[in-house]
Amino acid sequence: MFYWLMKYVVIGPIVKAIWRPWIIGRRNVPSEGAAILASNHLSFVDSVFLPLMIDRPVAFLAKSDYFTGRGLKGWSTRMFFKATGMIPIDRSGGKASEASLNTGLQVLGRGDLLGIYPEGTRSPDGKLYRGRTGIARMALEAHVPVVPVVMVDTDTMMPIGTRMPRIVRVGIVIGEPIDFSRFEGMEGDRYILRSITDEIMVALQRLGEQEYEDVYASTVKDRLKTPAR
């Protein structure tokens, strides 16, 4: 109830009126049943516009830090993430990664839509980077299709490090679902998982025509943080 209230009464109408988002391929999102929406990740606001522009709720896995803040700011952030369908997870790696996978599988097991950013983090420069294989494992274990989604100009609207969004019209392009049932039972094969993930990233690159670099976005971010000698 809270989700629908925020989407259709409180937050949604205001956001749509100010930024006038557009969408292509909305019909490619299954009208029922579980599916993974695999999106490029340009900005913090990607997780706001995608749920806003499709009819079904979408659950995203978000850093648990967003849900633990104190004071008025912490409360407002927590309420905002709940309103946009976020689910808190520990992203520290190891057992936490397995827990994140299980959380995602629970969402899919309910027959819901799960939003995933295969790159694992926001692009530092607008390029599309190598995908993490967790998405492939989820798709195979849950027996669900993967729907490629491209966010457009959200990085122009709210670049990394900025606090206030700019008034820029943003868009979403949704491609046709990809069926990986031909790999059923192979979720333990790391080469198959890599092949599936690469196929998803190729679909995203073709859909959005972003420049692609075959390294992890997190590696690029670490490189940018390291001072030159």
TrEMBL record:
One of its GO terms (molecular function) is acyltransferase activity. Pfam families: Acyltransferase (PF01553). InterPro entries: Plipid/glycerol_acylTrfase. The keyword Metal-binding does not apply. Residues 35-154 form the Phospholipid/glycerol acyltransferase domain. Keywords: Acyltransferase, Transferase. PANTHER family: 1-ACYL-SN-GLYCEROL-3-PHOSPHATE ACYLTRANSFERASE. This is 1-acyl-sn-glycerol-3-phosphate acyltransferase. It comes from Microbacterium salsuginis.
